[in-house]
Specification:
The complex is a heterodimer of chains A (136) and B (396).
Chain A (H helix, E strand, L loop, with lengths): L5 E4 L3 E7 L33 E6 L6 H10 L6 E6 L3 H11 L7 E3 L2 H4 L7 E4 L5 E3 L1
Parallel strand pairs in A: 2-3, 3-4, 4-5
Antiparallel strand pairs in A: 1-5, 2-6, 6-7
Helix pairs in contact in A: 1-2
Chain B lengths: L1 H11 L5 E3 L3 E3 L7 H12 L8 E3 L16 H16 L24 E2 L2 H11 L10 H8 L1 E3 L13 E4 L5 H4 L4 H13 L4 E4 L7 H14 L5 E3 L9 H4 L8 E3 L2 H10 L10 E9 L1 H11 L8 E5 L1 H9 L3 H7 L1 E5 L15 E4 L2 H11 L2 E4 L2 H10 L11
Parallel strand pairs in B: 2-3, 2-4, 6-7, 6-9, 7-8, 10-11, 10-13, 11-12, 13-14
Antiparallel strand pairs in B: 1-5
Helix pairs in contact in B: 1-5, 2-3, 4-8, 7-8, 7-10, 8-14, 11-15
The chains are: A alpha/beta (136), B alpha/beta (396).
Amino acid sequence: MDMTGRALIAGEASGTTLLLRSPISFWGGVDPHTGRISDPRHPNYDDCITDRILIIPATAGSSSSSAIMLELLRNGLAPAALLLVRHDGILALGVLVARELGYGTIPVIELSPEISGLLPDGVAARVKGTGSVEIL
Amino acid sequence: MAMRIVIDMAEMMGAERLTPIASAHIDGCLYHGDSGVEFAEHLVHQDGEVCVPTTLNVGALDLLHPKRVHADSHTAEMAHRQMSAYVKLGCTPTWTCAPYQAGHRPGLGEHVAWGESNAVAFANSVLGARTNRYGDFFDICCALTGRAPLTGLHLDENRQATVLVDTSSISETLKQSDVFYPVLGTWLGRTVGSEIAVIDGLPLNTSEDRLKALGAAASSSGSVGLFHVAGVTPEATTIESILMHSDQPDVVQLTSEMIRSTRDRLSTASTGRIDAVAVGSPHFSLDEFAELERLSRGQRFKVPFYACTGRGVLESLEKAGGIESLTQRGVEIVVDTCVVVTPILPDTGGVLMTSSGKFAHYTPANTGYDVVYGSLEDCVASAVSGSITRDESLWS
């Protein structure tokens, strides 16, 4: 099956997938100084998102999540790519601002729930500039 | 840069054009790391100036009580620089997450660009103004350009409810209690995520503070930007008019079991001693202070009791002579910020009790404290006894 999504922010990346098992608010959910999931009630608690192809089925919570995304990029602790299903643009915004400030950028791809459902946790994957995702 | 970001976001969100906005509320003034300071100061160096009335959300410092926050010197300096930069951009230093109770109340149908998840939910739901859930940095870009992408909740067709929540099996006694609304909100956010619900069966006199608590909890546990309450919020005069497919609606029946288990999940401790109490997320209103005054009269607290509010409310409270009696009982008033966004709680750790669904949600991750949720009355009783004291009768 063709696993192509819509590139909100184009780019190429490769890494190991990390599939979040519950919606997340980056603010109050990810520590921007360690890259780890910091909410003890989140099922992925203590997982490190740095350099991972992060698959986020749904976001929740704070509008400050863009600020945490920006800080992760500034600190070199960002995921390799964001694959978003239901989202409100807040995380992509953090990446957009990072690009403006010269902190670097990562691909942000919007995927349909059908495609994201085909992506397993913990496998090597590659994101291409066209918005396609390939399991290696 | 601001216009470039607005246009990039508009494309990303699929908007064909921009709309003028009447006001903005900025959630970008809270320090999370040096990147936020660099962004804000970059805008200042480019001579940025907001072109619509713009209020500011909390920062990481209590500027009126500088000893309240135990930040290291680098954090304190950077947090101060970040707050100052937004004032230099022409924003009004309200420093509150409840700007709608500090005089910033856009009208029904007015387009605005607001950040801070609870403020977004309130502006859309309770005031009937129109904003998407704008993230930090984007809110200020809209304020600087006076524009927002015309998409999402700015458009009539996206403001209809897709889910009907039937609350008829919940007791009237619970519905007439403040403690119900943060729990209802938490359940709503978890259940509907980003969908728009119309809630049926709430009292027609549901107060603004209860709606505020509902929205704040729903936008913490889920990404609710708009909810309707039939007969109460301005766009839900009738269920038929606001519900999509009202002939075959998607109905969720709320049960007392759902409410009870949601309430239980808001806490990470249930018995034993507490180390502090915190209320006021969103920031306490004058009415909420009046209730705290009434409940705590003649009492003396054994543990620190933090009440977080905006400096505007504090000023009114001071004028009315309502401060001294509260501080004598042990209430520590926190302004411009709150206990889950910056280090205020004693660094010993322990158990925090709260009447706020939002504090209950964020306390474990942000402060390291365990948390117990209860009514304001429970909070007062527990602060007096020093251990968890909750009225269970409402929930049985």
